[in-house]
Amino acid sequence: MKTIPFSGIVLDTSNPQDGQLTAMVNLRHTSTGSISPTGVNKKIYTISNHRELIYIHKGNGYENWITFDGSTIYYEAYRYGNDKVVRPMYYNDGASSEAKIGVPIYQIDGLNDITSVGNTLVVSTDGGIFYFLCYLYGSSGTYVYKNISINEDDITVKINQTDTGNYGYVNISFPYEVVEVGAKYILSKGETPDGAIYEKIDDLRSKGEIHNVALIRWAIRMHDGTYTLHSAPVLLMRRSPIFISGTMNNDYKNRSVRAMVGYYRIKVDITISKSLKESDIYKGIDVFMAEIPYYDDTDTYKNNFPVLGNGNPYSFGGDPFYTNDEKLRERILETANFYRIAQYDFDSDKFNNNTLSDIPDLSDILKNLVYQPTLTDDTYSHNRLIAEKIFNYNSKLHISGTSQKLYDGYPVEMFISYAGSTVDVIKYISKTYIKTESGTSIVVRDQDIPNGDNLLLLSPYISYPDSRAYNMEITIIYRVRGESGALTNYRFSASFDLTPHDFLNLAYYLPTGEINPITISGTVITEIPEAPQSSNNIETTPNKLKVSATDNPFIFPVEQTYTIGNGKIIGMAAATPALSQGQYGQFPLYVFTDEGIYMMQVGTGEVIYSNVFPVSRDICSNARSIISLDNAVAFTSDRKLFVLSGYSAKSISDSLEADYIPNPAHIYMEGIENVLTEPLLAYNYPFGELIIKNAEGNTAFIYDLQRKIWRQREMKASYFIPSYPVCYAVSDEDEVYDLSQESNQLQNVTICTAPITLGTPGFKKIERSILRMLAGGHFSISIYVSNDNKTFYKIISMNINSDTLLSDILLPRIPSSWRNFYLFIEGDMLSDSTITRLDIQEKNTFNTKLR
Question: What 3 state SS string does 369-431 have?
Answer without folding.
Answer: HHHCCECCCCCCCCCEEECCEEEEECCEEEEECEEEECCCCCCHHHCECCCCCCEEEEEEEEE
